[in-house]
Design a protein that fits this description.
This protein has about 375 residues and is an alpha/beta fold. The chain is built from 16 helices and 16 strands. The chain folds into 2 domains: about 240 residues, Rossmann fold (3-Layer(aba) Sandwich); about 120 residues, CBS-domain. The strands form 4 sheets. Strands 6-7-8-3-9-10 form a 6-stranded mixed beta sheet, with helices on both faces. A 4-stranded antiparallel beta sheet has the order 2-1-4-5, with helices on one face. The structure holds adenosine-5'-diphosphate and magnesium ion.
């Protein structure tokens, strides 16, 4: 476990980069530090391997204060991947990856086998690539080697500072997938800096969102999406994920063939339709399919004994409706306000277009994620 205890950092020029950070990173957790440029992500990360020293506060790894550990020793047990990984151009891929395992005195057979395994895990055939030079690999492949290099020495912690952000979108997606898969197998503690919320949402067990040297929210991706702590978090999420519904109109989320019944039908017919389609309310329409009212199961049951009645006698006619083209957010608001489980969508003429229901809303939302 990595613990930050009230850690501050003031650089020599007086810049306060971190303002009393408290953070616990569990063993085997992939945590993403995210936030706008200059918020202190890299500073936070570099303190873990003592590339930056705190001005005050304490950092513990496995309960041990790292200011008491020799920095060189510390770094051998912490993998580090940066944006431009800087493979040594005159060394082959295998030689590049072997540097730290060698330094750590791991047996040659052991690390060579491990390097091959890791290359296979990220889809680079070892027999084809291990003896190549870095310049013979694409940017994405080189970055994969950077990840492997960090893993080859079997560190318990890996620090990754925007490792994929210089790559094209397709390579970036692939490396993210690789990382997820690698992490399933190796279960390291990974601290991953990113400025890309999509990336963080995709890979992180927990997201730590920072602003101006402080932690604003540290939570699982799902809780960040569902319960953004404030407007900053909301803006950073980008208002285009769960909230994408706001750009949709009611037609995008409605059922377009809701169960309808004609005004003049009797109550028994209404009851039969409800049973048949497993619904608890019916939209009552005239012969031009204009919406006239709604009949619920309760209304039917209450009046059922009266055999002379038709649906128009018992229906509720002043039901809330919403016009086609209206935003989904307005529909949700209206449903909440009136405590409705469903809301008919109509054309300006009164012609029925469809029905928004709680479950049609959920279906539409799920399709977007
Ligand atoms: P991030 O990685 O989130 O972009 P950094 O941790 O690199 O942010 O930087 C946080 C703040 O500290 C920034 O304002 C940056 O300019 C400042 N800073 C970073 N490194 C130094 C340094 N070596 N000397 C002075 N100021 C620095
Ligand atoms: Mg940075």
């Amino acid at each position: 476990m990595i613990q930050f205890k009230n850690v501050t950092k003031r650089y020599n020029d007086g810049m306060t980069a971190l303002k009393g950070i408290d953070l616990e990173i569990k063993e085997g957790e992939l945590i993403t530090l995210i936030g706008p440029s200059g918020c202190g992500k890299t500073t936070t990360m570099k303190m873990i391997n003592r590339l930056v020293e705190p001005s005050s506060g304490q950092i513990l790894i496995g309960g041990k204060d790292i200011s008491l550990i020799n920095p060189v020793e510390l770094r051998r047990n912490i993998g580090y991947v940066i944006q431009h990984i800087g493979l040594f151009p005159h060394m082959t891929i295998k030689e590049n990856v072997a540097i730290v395992p060698k330094l750590k005195g791991i047996a040659k057979d052991t690390y060579e086998k491990r390097i091959d395994e890791l290359m296979e895990m990220v889809g680079l055939d070892p027999s084809e690539y291990r003896d190549r030079y870095p310049s013979e690999l694409s940017g994405g492949q080189q970055q994969r080697i950077g990840v492997i290099r960090a893993l080859a020495a079997e560190p318990s912690i890996i620090l990754m500072d925007e490792p994929f952000s210089a790559l094209d979108p397709i390579s970036r997606e692939q490396l993210q997938d690789d990382l997820i898969q690698l992490q399933e197998e190796v279960k390291k503690t990974i601290v991953f800096v990113s400025h890309d919320m999509d990336e963080a949402l995709k890979i992180a067990d927990r997201i730590v969102l920072m602003q101006g040297g402080e932690i604003v929210q540290a939570d699982t991706p799902d809780r960040i999406l569902r319960r953004p702590k404030n407007d900053f978090v909301r803006t950073f999420i980008g208002g285009n994920r769960l909230n994408e519904s706001e750009q949709l109109t009611v037609e995008d989320v409605m059922v377009s063939n809701p169960v309808t019944v004609s005004l003049t039908r009797g109550l028994a017919h209404g009851a039969k339709l409800m049973k048949q389609y497993r619904v608890t309310s019916l939209l009552v329409t005239d012969k031009h399919r204009h919406l006239k009212g709604i009949v619920t199961k309760e209304m039917l049951e209450e009046q059922y004994r009266n055999e002379d009645l038709t649906l128009q006698d018992i229906m509720k006619s002043d039901v809330p409706t919403i016009l086609v083209g209206t935003g989904v957010a307005d529909a949700v608001e209206l449903m909440r306000e009136h405590g409705l489980y469903s809301l008919p969508v109509v054309h300006p003429s009164g012609l029925l277009a469809g029905l928004v229901t709680n479950s049609s809303l959920i279906d539409a939302l799920l399709k977007q994620i």
